[in-house]
Structures are given as C-alpha cells and as structure tokens.
C-alpha cells in the first residue's frame, strides 16, 4: 500500500510539473536532477511518442551543439516533444560554453532510428554533413545560415534560412517573434554561438543582425565583458594539447560536392597557429589518410589565426595546389597558401571553390 501511494504521489507530481510550469529546457534539467532515475525512464518512453530528434552537423562546432539545445527548448515550449542530440564529440570551446550555461550536453544521436523518425536539422542541410540515412527520416524543421544543398522532402516542412553569421542569430529572432522569454542559460548558449561562428564579429559573415541579437542577449546572459568572454572561449578552442593530429584535422571538418567531386575542408581557429604549423608533416599524412579513407577528390585544411585574422591553408598535393592557386589567385609555397583575411569557410572558401569548378569543369 505504501509503495502504491508513493508511485501515485510521483505520478501526480509529474503531471503537475508537466502542465503547470513552462516546458522549457531549464525546467526539464531541474526536474531531472530531482527525480533523475524515474525521469530518465519517462524520457526514454517519450522517445517513442512522436519525439522530434534535433541535431546539428557531424564534427559539431559550438553553433551546431547550442542550436540543437536551443531549438529543442523552443519546440518544447511550443508543446512539441523534442530533444537535442549531437553527431560527434564536443570540442573544448563547446564544453566550456555548456558548463557556463549549466546545461547538460546532448547525447549522441542513436544509430538505429527507424524509418520515418521525425528530425530537425540545425546549422546544416546537406546530407553528406548529416546523419546516415537522413533520406529515410521525416524532416520537420531546418534552421540554417548556410547555402542550400541537396535537401529534398516529400511534404512541405518548416524552413528558416537567413544569410547571417550564426544559427543562433536566427533562433534568437524566433524567440522574439513569438514573444517567448529567453532564460539566462539559453541566452548564454545563443551569445556563445554567435560569437563563435563570427569569431567575435571578425568574420566576413558577420551582419548587423548578429550584433543586434548579441546586444539584446547580453543583459539576459549576464555577460559583463563580451571581449573577455569571447577570448575565454577562443582560448579554450585553441587548446589542442590533448588531441591527436587526426582529431585536430576532423574537429571542424565538412565535405562539399563540387560538380560531382567530393572535397573535404577542415578548419582550425586558434590563438596559436604555430602549434599546428610545427606539426605540418603529421597533418599532411593525416590529410592523405582521410582523403583515401573517405574517397575524397581533394582535401584542404585552413589554419585561422584569430588574432591576426589570417588564413594559412595547408595544401596536400598537386591537384589541391592547382585548384587553390586558380580559385584564390594565390601562390603555394612549401605546401602553404596564404589566403590573407579570407577566413570564413562559408563565405570566403566554399563560394570561391564553387566558382572555380563552374569555370573549369
């Protein structure tokens, strides 16, 4: 009898919590901490109840991880059952941001999702950058700030694409348009996403909307000194001492299709470019291995000096050298092409390569 009453009390508390308090991510975290084991069982059950699986791209950066968390919170508050996931390990910068926000990191996306599972994509839309078998999923939402790739659906879905510096900027606008209160932990995630993707407004991708949304979010996030906060993030991102050279190559690595050719482009944004440059021979071997393993036509790796706003691109072979010289009108010396201030993969690198392949193929 006592056992029955205990279970009944727990069920009543669960129902009261669900329908009395706003369904936002921060409340979910608090409730999980109080009833961790039982709530875990409830969450496992909810996966089978029309849950929307929200995730960013493979080899996720801060924008991909935080955007998944934020969109899941947004959908929950719209009474849509959603949960954030990830498609790879968190980098050191993202770990810092998650800790600052006091939010649990997303779990890895299950590898055995059944056909027709509802999914939401953030910070990407190209299938080669997403989960395996994406074509078998039921895509419900896409929130992104990149070029439109090979995305196709059988039915109309919710799409939000904007030419801004970060998916976090778009998500901030969604909250404001829907007159939703942004809680402190969500504001920290959003500010961090925008600062990370725009390199604290250094990147050519930066727009006035990015600056405006950060200005709006700062008091909510209670971040007093934006420069100090951004530098703390970038210092964490720059700490590569515990990574193998293969991991450094793939930390922020994406593949793109140019005229049926698959090219891989890795990026390392760092305060300490010399740390990677001293390991150039190791990096070239890792690039060769990845090119063979993933059957890439070409592979490039950009070392972005955050302080000097400078891109030193590592060139593997003759093919990559020829393409880079023509696409960017630069020389290649000792396996390095100095691309100057062209530091954005999205706005500076990929469009130039796209233009080259249109002209020469």
Task: Note the main attributes of this structure.
361 residues; alpha/beta; 6-stranded parallel beta sheet; 6-stranded mixed beta sheet; 12 strands
Describe the structure concisely for a colleague.
The protein has 361 residues and is of the alpha/beta class.
Structural class: alpha/beta
**Structure annotation, total helices:** 14
Strand order of the largest sheet: 3-2-1-4-5-6
Task: Provide the gyration radius in Å.
Answer: 22 Å
- Alpha-carbon distance between the termini? 77 Å
Low-confidence stretches: 17-48
Give me the strand/helix succession.
HHHEHEHEEEEHHHHHEEHHEEHEEH
Oligomer status: single chain
Helix content: 40-55%
Largest sheet: 6 strands, parallel
Arithmetic mean pLDDT: 89
Overall shape: it is globular
Task: Indicate the proportion of strand residues.
Answer: 15-25%
Q: Could you give the count of β-strands?
A: 12
């Amino acid at each position: 009898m006592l056992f029955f009453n205990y279970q009944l009390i727990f069920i009543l508390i669960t129902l009261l919590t669900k329908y009395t308090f706003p369904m936002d991510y921060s409340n979910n975290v608090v409730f999980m901490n109080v009833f961790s084991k039982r709530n875990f069982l409830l969450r496992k059950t909810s996966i089978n109840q029309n849950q929307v699986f929200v995730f960013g791209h493979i080899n996720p950066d801060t924008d991909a991880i935080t955007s998944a968390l934020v969109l899941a919170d947004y959908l929950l508050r719209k009474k849509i059952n959603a949960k954030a996931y990830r498609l790879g390990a968190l980098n050191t910068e993202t770990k810092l941001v998650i800790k600052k926000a006091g939010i649990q990191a997303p779990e890895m996306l299950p590898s055995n999702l059944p056909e027709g599972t509802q999914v939401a994509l953030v910070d990407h839309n190209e299938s080669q950058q997403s989960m395996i078998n994406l074509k078998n999923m039921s895509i419900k939402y896409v929130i992104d700030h990149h070029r439109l790739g090979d995305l196709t659906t059988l039915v109309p879905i919710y799409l939000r694409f904007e030419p801004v510096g970060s998916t976090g900027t778009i998500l901030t606008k969604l909250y404001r348009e829907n007159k939703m209160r942004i809680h402190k932990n969500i504001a920290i995630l959003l500010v961090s996403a925008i600062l990370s993707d725009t390199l604290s407004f250094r990147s050519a991708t930066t727009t006035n909307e990015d600056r405006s949304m950060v200005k709006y979010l700062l008091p909510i996030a209670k971040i007093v000194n934006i420069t100090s906060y951004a530098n703390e993030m970038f210092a964490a991102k720059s700490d590569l001492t515990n990574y193998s050279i293969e991991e450094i190559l793939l930390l922020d690595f994406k593949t793109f299709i140019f005229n049926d050719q698959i090219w891989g482009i890795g990026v390392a944004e760092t305060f300490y470019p010399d740390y990677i440059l001293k390991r150039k021979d190791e990096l070239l071997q890792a690039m060769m291995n990845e090119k063979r393993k993933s059957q890439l036509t070409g592979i490039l790796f950009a070392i972005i000096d955050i302080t000097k706003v400078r891109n030193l691109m590592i060139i593997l072979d003759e093919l990559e050298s020829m393409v880079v010289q023509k696409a960017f009108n630069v020389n290649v010396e000792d396996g390095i092409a100095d691309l100057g201030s062209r530091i954005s993969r999205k706005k500076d690198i990929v469009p130039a390569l796209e233009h080259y392949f249109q002209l020469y193929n």
